[in-house]
Amino acid sequence: MTFPLEAFSAVSSAHPWTYVVFGGIGVAFGYTLESAGFGDSRKLAAQFYFKELTVLKVMFTAIVVAMTLLFGAVGLGLIDFSQVWVNPTYLGSGVLGGLIMGVGFIIGGFCPTTSLAAASTGKIDGMMFMLGGFVGAFLFGETEGYFDHWYNDAGHYGRLTLDQVFGLSAPTLVLIFVVMALFMFWGAEQLERIVGGKDQSREPRLRKVGAVGLLGMAVAVLAIGSPSLEGRYQRLTFKRSEAITQADGTVQTLPHVYSADEMLSKRLVFISPAEAFKVRYQQEIKPVYLDVRSEADYNLYHLADAINVPLDQLAAAVPDMLTEPAANTVFIAISNDEQAAIKAWKLLVANKVPNVYILDGGVNHWIATFGTQDAGLHPSATAGDDQLRYVFAAALGDRYASCSPSPMKFEELDYQPRIVLQLKRDKSGGGCG
Amino acid sequence: MQWLRSLFNRPEKPYLHPYFAGAVLGVVLFSAFLLTGNGLGSSGATSRIDALLVDLVAPTHVDNTPYLLKMAGGDKNPLDDWIVPVFLGALMGSFMSGARNGRLKLTTTKGPHISNSTRWLMSFLGGMIFLYGARMARGCTSGQALSGGATLAAGSWAIMLAIFASAYLLAYFVRKLWL
């Protein structure tokens, strides 16, 4: 079983349990915040005068503990990180919004969630903060239209994590953050001693045991590492419905879960040239023809609009394919026959690129379907495995007639549709939106 | 009524040790990711409740305002989002903690040299400014700094630094409020 559980990916009245789960998480959240003293604005504001650094200690302990557990579980294959909500990066609105939040923090003495803890325990200033919050959020909704373009585009990098920014592995970064946090805690205690006049010798010894434990866990996360591509591939599952004819002649469709290798052996990811051609004209699908052959083959002949990413360069293109293409994008891997395309498919699905398919029989099958009338194409007898089985009069690229068959001429095509759009996690189902 | 009175007159217990509270909070945050794939948050619920109110008063205005349209346009229910039960749960949870530890008291927490009404005005203004910024940044200290920080989201770390930077820069000038 892989987490997060799909049943809890969003709340809906169809699954009343989801309210209980999210409500329970909220209860634990509020209970902890209040217990940490975050219902008292003086404790929060003291952070900014270096007298008492409770906010920093609680917040960073929480961040590094959650981070260590999260990436440990990801490394063990328990959690599928692609299904975890990562706040998309909008540098422009994020940084300006952050600066504005800081102003509200020091003037108001709370942040939104701590104001809940204050208000619900009878602090009038917490209630006022909440009230002001409703006004502020309302004002944002009213004024957002004036800078909509900036809000949605300034420094928009999509799903971007620090390991990608720094070119380090996530477990390495976890260890670095843990070490940094521990160093910060040490510094914070020094500050509290000097500025706040607090006697740190009366602090519990246990905190040092905790520090060592956390460090040990971070080292373990590094030892576990990131899940291998092969491991991720083996754990993939695909959902399809299967039509089964009963004894009495009725047809029943049953959902079925296949592994990646089953999808290949049952040829459920191979789409016929006819389907690959027809999806061009389907509004609901945005096909990307991904030609993974060598540039030389691509230059000889390729499907109209195909983009050439040779197999050995495909890994480098994965981040681009993951960063928010339209949810209805379907990648169709194409080689001369199928060999290279199958390799490409395995690489892409293991990297969680959604909606990847393979052109059945590759370019050779495409030409056999659409190019039999094409002058300038002649069958070749000497082709080997996954090589072009045609001889071309010239390297015309996509300027042979069969590269973009006429939709009028090929209007009626008989094929079994294979594409089942798998829409990614709804963006509104995640984050603090 | 006896139990209600006893709810408010319990002996006040000290707060948890910051590192311990932080570790518990970290486990809560991790559990949220493990079960649902989402982190924690609250400011989103504020604007969703706003959207509901606007939708009740002026539904056509919702359909003309892009930001509200996303949440409450047409027959969409703005409360149909994970953040709403988390928000209500957080209110309940902190009340439970306050009740259990004898910290339920109608009072105002403020610096020693300002009046209650100044403090209320400042909290109101602070809340207004904070939530304006939080909606601009698509999340507050919980949804961005805490949850985004733990998933190594690049933008969330930038937001966290921005929050602390401006609060520290401004702290000196508003010291009368707190010191």
From TrEMBL, chain A:
Segments crossing the lipid bilayer: 16-33, 54-79, 91-112, 124-141, 165-188, 209-229
GO molecular-function term, one example from the UniProt record: transferase activity
Every Rhodanese domain range: 283-375
InterPro entries cross-referenced by the UniProt entry: Rhodanese-like_dom, Rhodanese-like_dom_sf, Sulf_transp_TsuA/YedE
Keywords of the record: Membrane, Transferase, Transmembrane, Transmembrane helix
Residue ranges the record marks as coiled coil: none
Pfam families named in the record: Rhodanese, Sulf_transp
Name of protein: Sulfurtransferase
Native species: Parasulfuritortus cantonensis
Automatic annotation (TrEMBL), chain B:
Residue ranges crossing the lipid bilayer per the database entry: 20-40, 82-99, 120-137, 157-174
Keyword terms: Cell inner membrane, Cell membrane, Membrane, Transmembrane, Transmembrane helix, Transport
Superkingdom, taxonomy of origin: Bacteria
Chief location category: membrane
Record flagged with keyword Chaperone: no
Location in or out of the cell: Cell inner membrane
Keyword Transmembrane helix: yes
Protein's recorded name: Uncharacterized protein
GO cellular component: plasma membrane
Origin species: Parasulfuritortus cantonensis
